[in-house]
Amino acid sequence: MVDTDRLIVIATVAVGHAPFALAVSPAGNRVYVANVQGGDVSVLGADSLARIGTVRVGAMPYGVAVAPGGDRIFVANQQSGTVNVVDAASLVATYRAKVGRYPESIVMLPDGSKAYVVNWMSGDISVLDGETGRELKRLDAGEGARGLAIVPSG
Question: Are the C-beta atoms of residues 11 and 22 closer than 8 Å to each other?
Fold first, then answer.
């Protein structure tokens, strides 16, 4: 279990430039922090909060989500209008999808089949294949949409 109070205090010191969003791996052993002004994602060990690595992604990473199996990380890059898929084992970006303007929040379905990213300035949501990151379609979200959440049924 991640101690969120400790994470907030230490993450502001231990990660890259202007940390913004974070996600915890399903196993609870890693924390991924999107560094908006650094163009990268810091990977921390959840127990020690020591840096495991850094992954270069697109300009202004604003959102990060982890696949349910923990093997892929999806990063929404606001300024470049892209989403990177990163291999969690090698910490290498394996795919980059072009999405709408100013993508921000990104979430994944619990089964990992799809990822959704809200594109603030284009007023839509990109639906991505949860394995490859390829954009499947866009849904209208209306003006100014900036956040998403997955709510389990029941």
Answer: yes
pLDDT of residue 11: 46
4: left (phi over 0), alpha (psi -120 to 50) or beta: alpha
Q: What is the mean pLDDT of each run of 10 residues along the chain (154 residues)?
A: 54 72 94 94 90 93 96 96 97 95 95 96 96 96 88 75
What are the two backbone dihedrals, phi and then psi, of residue 13, each rounded to the nearest 5 degrees? -100, -40
pTM of the model: 0.89
Contacts of residue 115, defined as CB under 8 A and 6 or more positions apart, other chains included, come to: 65, 74, 83, 106, 107, 108, 109, 127, 128, 129, 130, 133
Q: Which CATH architecture has domain 4-140?
A: 7 Propeller (2.130)
- Structural contact between residues 58 and 65, judged by C-beta atoms closer than 8 angstroms: no
Structure tokens at 97: 């999808």
